[in-house]
Amino acid sequence: MKRDETPLLSPARLMEARELGEKLARLRKARRLRQADATARAGMARSTAALIEKGDLSRTQAQILRYLEAIAPGLTLLGLLQESIYTDSRSSK
Question: Which end of the chain is more exposed for a tag (fewer CB within 10 A), N or C?
């Protein structure tokens, strides 16, 4: 049985997890990819992608990296975190 990690993290860390998920969702949308297409490329269920984009803490690092690679091949996680276009939805308008 999976353990819920939410109570073990500070509110700041929970916010970071949500922000990572939001960045991935914005990147996917900026690339004009449907979630179903991204999950097919990543070889995962759409429900897993939905959890990743919500910042669910039970997703593994490998799942997150596979999803990122499916959305933007070659983009590193560090690159995603540093890109302002994916961190602030207002900057992409």
Answer: N
Residues 6+ apart with CB under 8 A from 49: 35, 38, 39, 42, 67
Q: Which domains does the chain have, with CATH numbers?
A: 10-86 (1.10.260.40)
Contact of 86 with 23, CB cutoff 8 Å: yes
CA atoms within 13 A on the CB side of 92: 14
How far apart are alpha carbons 45 and 5 in whole angstroms? 22
pLDDT tens across 2-17, in order? 656 566 888 999 999 9
